[in-house]
Write a structure and sequence with these properties.
- This protein has about 325 residues and is mostly beta strands.
- It is built from 1 helix and 30 strands.
- The protein starts with a helix and ends in a 13-residue tail after the last strand.
């Protein structure tokens, strides 16, 4: 009888695909819905009806509908990486090697050249009325700068020189927040005056950053042990750290809404936590194996992740449906 009971418990454990990692947290194995895209998939954005993904190795972008059907590709230049969208359906793509921003009107994938940047771009984000591009001065990470760009005319203004190692940026609370992997690891820029302040969190390198209506949320790694990662919540008023969640991979991609934050590790592990206090809700690994994430968005209850390479050099879009309440038995089709 004891042997039968042990066998039943073991089979339930196996079927549910749940096991404990080294820290004691349960890990759910989930099979995502997969859309294969072109070479070196990078940034992703959602315009309200379709996803837009940069395929940097193919010098192109691709538009994908909500059901995962590829609608169209368009060649736009050398190394398109970042994608953002504004209310009303306009989409913008940042082409790193050519230093160009393309503007795509609603439903028009090819678009037009909006502006050319004077420095090497590193990342792009959007506030309600402007685009913001992080650049590396002299095309190396020793000095950085942020450009404010009119999304209709392409007119530019910029901050003064900022600190080294600027990696990503986000807009929120009337400010632009820049994550650095060298101290000081946070730069905070006023949207109007373009004046900046800095903040440092000891022992931390920041790699990714996003905002919701309550907080600024960043991901990165521990400075002394770069195999260890973390997610932190930053108070948007004081710029101080409020909560921290430690992980066993560098968190290279962050996506959040007002309820949950998804931190995606450099080897593809996913941590879902509450945006109230970073209490861990679940840890996920994909049945597809390890992957390098490029970007992610949360749309409704779905988490959509760009994997830079999945089928040899070609990338993929992974969709985890109903990620809020995903049990290990909820497998995406």
């Amino acid at each position: 009888m004891k042997h039968l009971l042990f066998f039943v418990i073991f089979m339930l454990f196996f079927i549910n695909n749940v096991y404990a990692d080294n820290s004691g947290n349960s890990i759910q194995t989930i099979t995502p819905a997969i859309v294969n895209v072109g070479k070196w998939a990078e940034g992703i954005t959602f315009d309200g009806s379709s996803y837009w993904v940069a395929e940097s190795g193919d010098r192109s972008i691709v538009r994908i509908d909500r059901q995962g059907k590829i609608e169209r590709h368009a060649n736009i230049g050398r190394l398109p990486v970042d994608m953002v969208s504004l209310p009303g359906g306009r989409v913008y793509s940042l082409v790193h090697t050519d230093k160009i921003i393309w503007m795509h009107s609603p439903g028009v994938i090819k678009g037009i050249r909006l502006t050319t940047l004077p420095e090497c771009p590193q990342a792009m984000t959007a506030s309600k009325q402007a685009l913001w591009v992080l650049t590396w001065v002299g095309c190396n990470n020793a000095k950085t700068r942020v450009f404010k760009i009119n999304p209709s005319t392409g007119m530019q203004s910029s901050t003064d020189i900022l600190g080294a190692g600027g990696q990503s940026l986000t807009a929120g609370w009337g400010k632009i927040w820049v994550a650095h992997y060298f101290a000081p690891v946070l730069t905070v820029i006023d949207e109007h005056s373009l004046k900046s302040d800095t903040e440092n969190f000891d022992g931390v390198d920041l790699w990714s950053i996003t905002a919701n209506s309550n907080s600024i949320i960043a991901g990165g790694r521990m400075h002394e042990d770069k195999t260890k990662g973390l997610i932190i919540i930053i108070d948007p008023k004081t710029h101080k750290e409020k909560f921290r969640l430690l992980t066993n991979q560098m968190v290279s991609v962050i996506a959040a809404n007002d309820e949950i934050v998804a931190g995606i590790g450099s080897e593809g592990k996913i941590w879902i936590a509450s945006t109230k206090d970073l209490s861990l809700l679940k840890t996920i690994k994909l049945s597809t194996g390890e992957f390098h994430p490029s970007s992610a968005v949360i749309v409704g209850n779905d988490l959509i992740i760009t994997a830079q390479q999945f089928n040899h050099e070609n990338g993929a879009i992974f969709t985890l449906t109903n990620v809020y309440n995903h049990s290990s038995q909820d497998i995406a089709s």
